[in-house]
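Order emerges. As here.
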Amino acid sequence: MARNLDITSLRSFVAVADSGGVTKAAGYLHLTQSAVSMQLKRLEEALDVSLLDRSNRSVSLTAQGEQLLSYARRMLALNDEIYTRLTAKEYEGEIVLGVPHDIIYPYIPPILRAFAADFPRVRMRMVSAPTKRLREMFGRGECDVILTTEEHPGPGGEALVTLPLVWIGATGGSAWKQRPLPVAFCKNCIFRSGVLKRLDDAEIDWDMVVDSDLDNAVEAVVSADLAIHAAIKGVYPRQTGPIAHDGVLPDPGQSRIVLYLQADDDPILTTLRDMIRQAYLSEWSPQETIQLRA
């Protein structure tokens, strides 16, 4: 006799596998931890296998769990496609999405592609600008959804992931050894004040060698070994990379990728929000080096 797997339990299983734990998965699914745990237990009982290795502090997949994960993703994708095609209304209009340039790749393009497939009659317009400008635009209602890089979320912001900042310079460069230390930050850089304060606290004299509102001016002087800069770990302009300073420079701090949404009762915006959450929560790897420009 044919037996059926529960889609809800599969969705919880995939969320736990992607987020690395029941707590994060419960937050993403808007369920209690006990509800997610119960769904996982039912799935294991239905298959009569152990899907998760719970012997360590972090949850990992067993061999059977890894095998199921691929099937589960395909089943959920097909389920969601069927539901969208047969029940979705023909939404129209325009959505403005704001994203700083250094976190566009590699996740925003697939999100845009998936969104366009689900809402073919909705026009997506993307604005790339520094966090400060995006927050201002969002406050004026000029953006529907924005992603920002901030140390702490502002009112209404949802922190998706926390990533370390690192000092970067020209590949093989020596600008970091100079004193005063030549640094480059555009005027709108959200990291600027915090990083400079850390240099002051470490009693390191510095000299700002760029006076520009544009990130590409910063990238030019850093790649030319005329200054150094602080960037999200793994996201570096071409011809630059992390500086192996062996503790000579202070820790530049960390940044959070924060999501802001104008209306959480709009089905189009909430769909886009969920796509963004899934991409950044499950896929971001700070060990991965992302080159920003060809």
Remarks:
- The mean pLDDT is 88.
- The chain has two domains: 7-87, 88-293.
- The longest strand covers residues 158-170.
